[in-house]
């Protein structure tokens, strides 16, 4: 199988915060890989912008070092040498006037203009205002904004209103890198390009859905940020909400940005309020090799959760009565992200007790070893009667697609190319962000009012014992967390 690489049009991309970690670790290495793949025209410009005073040559040296480290190439690789010719740098004062005239002077009238805000959300408004005042917020320009997009409904609305003063909604790309993952996009392909699953994709046949995003790392090094956010703001309100929407949404009339996002918005608006008894919050404790959450954030009184598990219900015809179980946490047993759709057992078994059929299960692995696994019942080989055994029909992208499955584009690569194309399908719309916060805010408010501490759990475990009981009381079990 040969993948098609479709070049994008000539563009000028400005990366605000170009000296930061995200730019060096993800954005610039991703752009290099797209350049090597032949997707970026050699006439394009990539302009770094930040407070640091440096010239083009110094910026190129720093980017070269980052690409060598994160993209696995040698410093003298001719492809890297060629890519660095696209780069330039302007020292910018985000809240003042320094550097803006020079930046405007570098932008070409005949190229697509894109501006990546890889900075703190507090600077979004200042950047948007200065782009507009210096004539760079015209109709064909677009801006990319990173999460967190607000920390509650009020701040999200304020950010939306600020950006709307200078850019139309179809110019604003709210990026969630989870939506750029190959397997996440395959959720839509599996559902809507195959008649096999869609007739069964409802409460009549699905017993429950589990969405798990587990990490082995703690918050050391970013504790000051994380302690103000917690698992619900850092993961549930955005990444996991997007996965939930893609699983639960109705078929859009077309694979079109607003058609897809309209259906996702309907799911969020159909979410029932979550009862306190259906939520478990946790904080990891330390072990011999590392500190506890409280150690990592430097606050012995912190009530911020590093783990959350919850039972969510959707009030619509398709999903009424089918629970969705979400869990995510730091310092867990393994790094894994997956969605498991457990179907109901057959209504009647014609086999004896030793061969009772088990429920079918479709597991979509997002990371690591991206792929899908469908568990079905078959007869156990050999004589001795009809004995049933559950076996997996396992498909990993690496095996099924060969070299292409092993070298899939990073999520940021795909999403940035979509920005240049002007395709907003995999980006969040303003009303979608606000609806997600409207559902999340009451949950957070109830925690703050109760002042309850999160449940402790051992680093390297599956999470708090209370999370196990959340499932056990429904006569269900969490899937094992394993890589």
TrEMBL record:
Domain Glucose-6-phosphate dehydrogenase C-terminal: 188-479
Reaction equations catalysed: D-glucose 6-phosphate + NADP(+) = 6-phospho-D-glucono-1,5-lactone + NADPH + H(+)
Binding site for NADP(+): 51, 147
Transmembrane spans: none
Pathway membership, UniProt: Carbohydrate degradation; pentose phosphate pathway; D-ribulose 5-phosphate from D-glucose 6-phosphate (oxidative stage): step 1/3
Binding site residues for substrate: 177, 181, 215, 234, 330
Catalytic residues, chain numbering: 239 (proton acceptor)
Enzyme class name: oxidoreductase
UniProt-listed Enzyme Commission number(s): 1.1.1.49
Residue span(s) of domain Glucose-6-phosphate dehydrogenase NAD-binding: 14-186
Keywords: Carbohydrate metabolism, Glucose metabolism, NADP, Oxidoreductase
Region (Disordered): 448-468
Pfam family, one: G6PD_C
Main function: Catalyzes the oxidation of glucose 6-phosphate to 6-phosphogluconolactone.
Alphabetized HAMAP family for the sequence: G6PD
Family, as annotated: Belongs to the glucose-6-phosphate dehydrogenase family.
Protein name, entry field: Glucose-6-phosphate 1-dehydrogenase
Species this protein is from: Paracoccus stylophorae
């Amino acid at each position: 199988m040969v993948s098609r690489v479709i070049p994008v049009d000539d563009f000028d991309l400005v990366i605000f915060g170009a000296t930061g970690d995200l730019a060096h670790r993800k954005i610039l290495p991703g752009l290099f890989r797209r350049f090597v793949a032949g997707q970026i025209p050699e006439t394009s410009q990539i302009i770094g912008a930040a407070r640091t005073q440096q010239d083009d040559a110094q910026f190129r040296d720093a980017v070269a070092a980052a690409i060598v480290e994160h993209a696995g190439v040698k410093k003298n690789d001719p492809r890297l040498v060629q890519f660095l010719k696209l780069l330039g740098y302007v020292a910018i004062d985000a809240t003042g006037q320094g550097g803006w005239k020079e930046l405007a002077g570098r932008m070409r009238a005949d190229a697509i203009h894109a501006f990546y805000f890889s900075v703190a959300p507090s600077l979004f408004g200042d950047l948007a205002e200065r782009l507009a005042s210096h004539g760079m917020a015209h109709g064909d320009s677009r801006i990319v904004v990173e999460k967190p997009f607000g920390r509650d409904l009020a701040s999200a609305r304020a950010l939306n209103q600020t950006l709307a003063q200078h850019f139309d909604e179809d110019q604003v790309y709210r990026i969630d890198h989870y939506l750029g993952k190959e397997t996440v996009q395959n959720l839509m392909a599996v559902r809507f390009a195959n008649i096999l699953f869609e007739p069964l994709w409802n409460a009549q046949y699905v017993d429950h859905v589990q969405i798990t995003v587990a990490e082995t790392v703690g918050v050391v090094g970013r504790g000051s940020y994380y302690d103000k956010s917690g698992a619900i703001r850092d993961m549930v309100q955005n990444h996991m909400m997007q996965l939930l929407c893609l699983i639960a949404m109705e078929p859009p009339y077309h694979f079109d940005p607003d058609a897809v996002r309209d259906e996702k918005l309907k799911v969020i608006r159909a979410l029932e309020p979550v009862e306190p008894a259906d939520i478990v919050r946790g904080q990891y404790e330390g072990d011999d090799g590392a500190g506890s959450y409280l150690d990592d954030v430097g606050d012995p009184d912190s009530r911020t959760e590093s783990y959350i598990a919850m039972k969510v219900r959707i009030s619509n015809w398709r999903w009424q009565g089918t629970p969705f179980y979400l869990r995510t946490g730091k310092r867990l047993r393994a790094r894994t992200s997956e969605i498991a759709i457990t179907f109901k057992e057959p209504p009647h078994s014609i086999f004896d007790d030793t061969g009772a059929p088990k429920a079918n299960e479709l597991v979509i692995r997002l990371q690591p070893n991206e792929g899908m696994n469908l568990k079905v019942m078959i007869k156990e080989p050999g004589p001795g009667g009809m004995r049933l055994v559950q076996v997996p029909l396992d498909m990993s992208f690496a095996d099924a697609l060969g070299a292409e499955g092993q070298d899939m584009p990073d999520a940021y690569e795909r999403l940035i190319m979509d920005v240049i194309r002007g395709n907003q399908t995999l980006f969040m719309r303003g009303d979608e962000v606000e609806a997600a916060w409207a559902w999340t805010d009451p949950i957070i408010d109830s925690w703050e009012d109760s002042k309850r501490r999160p449940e402790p759990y051992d680093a390297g475990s599956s999470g708090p014992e209370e999370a196990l009981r959340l499932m056990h009381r429904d006569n269900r079990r969490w899937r094992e967390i394993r890589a």
